[in-house]
């Protein structure tokens, strides 16, 4: 394989290791400025805004206006969400009578948008669950028919995104989870599993999002990875994930040669389950040399030092 930067011929596993290190250094983040959910949030908000304007003007974009009022371009606005700051294009009408609901005028902070974005893009939620999120945002401000139309338009656009063809090879994929409250008659915490990929060019993207129930096993993960394979992913070199039940087995069933690496962040977080709060900072300082060691032998040496320092007090962390 040719390195896209230097032009040198390199081994696929070496390339995957380089891209993994680069992704960790730059941060493979779902949220925050530049987070991978940022573009999805932008798409959801802009599609909903355009659907609202269509309802306000009583005609679709490109159709003959019903009256003198019509579309009049867009204006740029940055909104603050749980996902991070998102820059959107807000559509305008000629006489200025359009009052958007999902992104009100003069309002910068939006709450609950992460729930809408994840519920729209995730596999496994019912139409009622998706509509319930929009209903909470719009409430009595617009009619049920309008909410239904907005839900239909946004869902249709994001369905195309969720089924788009993918690259044949991803040197690295990350599997992560976000827990969101889902409303459909009652409120429940639902895990949303996100598969992120790093391409051979070093670009990062969300490959898909799936809603679970917290009791997922091999069968669930086989469905997830089979879908990715059916969308064109023939091979994965390194998969970084938490130790969720059945996850490593499903990865290697789908891509036999993939190297499964448990996420360091999750390992450290899991270590805290066995540690006193007063020792957590010190444990992190002691673990960091293990994970940042330049070689396998150096990592083993640092681990022995960690075990000598903390093993008697916290043997479960050493075993983990």
Overview of the molecule:
The chain is an alpha/beta fold and 320 residues long. It folds into three domains: 12-27 and 167-262, Nucleotidyltransferase, domain 5 (2-Layer Sandwich); 37-162, no CATH class; 267-319, no CATH class. It contains eleven helices and eight strands. The protein has helices at residues 12-26, 37-57, 113-121, 127-138, 144-162, 218-230, 247-254, 264-271, 280-291, 296-310, 315-319, and strands at residues 71-81, 84-93, 122-123, 169-183, 187-198, 204-211, 235-241, 259-262. Strands 3-6-5-4-7-8 form a six-stranded mixed beta sheet, with helices on both faces. Strands 1-2 form a two-stranded antiparallel sheet. A hairpin with a 3-residue loop joins β4 and β5 (187-198). α3 packs antiparallel against α4 (127-138), α6 runs parallel beside α7 and α9 (280-291) runs antiparallel to α10. The longest helix is centred in the first third of the chain and has 21 residues, at 37-57. The two termini are 36 Å apart. Residues 1-10 have low confidence and may be disordered.
What brief labels describe this structure?
single chain; 320 residues; alpha/beta; Nucleotidyltransferase, domain 5; 3 domains; 6-stranded mixed beta sheet; two-stranded antiparallel sheet; 11 helices; disordered N terminus
């Amino acid at each position: 394989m040719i390195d896209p930067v230097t032009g040198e011929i390199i081994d696929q596993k070496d390339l995957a290791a380089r891209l993994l290190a680069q992704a960790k250094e730059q941060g493979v983040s779902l949220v925050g400025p530049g987070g991978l959910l940022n573009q999805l949030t932008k798409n959801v908000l802009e599609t909903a805004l355009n659907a609202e304007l269509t309802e306000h003007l009583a005609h679709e974009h490109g159709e003959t206006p019903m009256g003198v009022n019509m579309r009049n371009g867009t204006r740029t606005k940055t909104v603050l969400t749980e996902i991070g700051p998102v820059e959107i294009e807000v559509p305008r009408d000629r006489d200025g009578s359009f009052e958007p609901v999902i992104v009100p005028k003069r309002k910068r902070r939006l709450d609950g948008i992460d729930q809408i974005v994840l519920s729209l893009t995730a596999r496994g939620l019912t139409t009622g669950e998706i509509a319930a999120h929009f209903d909470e945002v719009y409430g009595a401000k617009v009619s049920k028919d309008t909410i239904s139309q907005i839900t239909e338009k946004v869902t249709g656009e994001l369905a195309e995104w969720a089924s788009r063809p993918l690259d044949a090879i991803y040197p690295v994929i990350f599997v992560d989870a976000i827990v969101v409250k889902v409303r459909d008659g009652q409120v429940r915490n639902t895990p949303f599993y996100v598969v992120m990929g790093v391409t051979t060019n070093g670009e990062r993207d969300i490959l898909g999002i799936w809603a679970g129930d917290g009791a997922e096993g091999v069968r669930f993960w086989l469905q997830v990875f089979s879908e990715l394979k059916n969308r064109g992913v023939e091979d994965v070199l390194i998969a970084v994930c938490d130790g969720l039940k059945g996850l490593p087995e499903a990865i290697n069933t789908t891509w036999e040669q993939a190297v499964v690496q448990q996420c360091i962040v999750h390992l450290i977080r899991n270590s805290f389950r066995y540690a006193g709060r007063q020792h957590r900072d010190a444990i992190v300082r002691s673990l960091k040399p293990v994970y940042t060691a330049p070689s396998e032998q150096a990592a083993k040496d640092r681990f022995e030092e960690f075990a000598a320092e903390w093993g008697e007090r916290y043997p479960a962390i050493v075993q983990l």
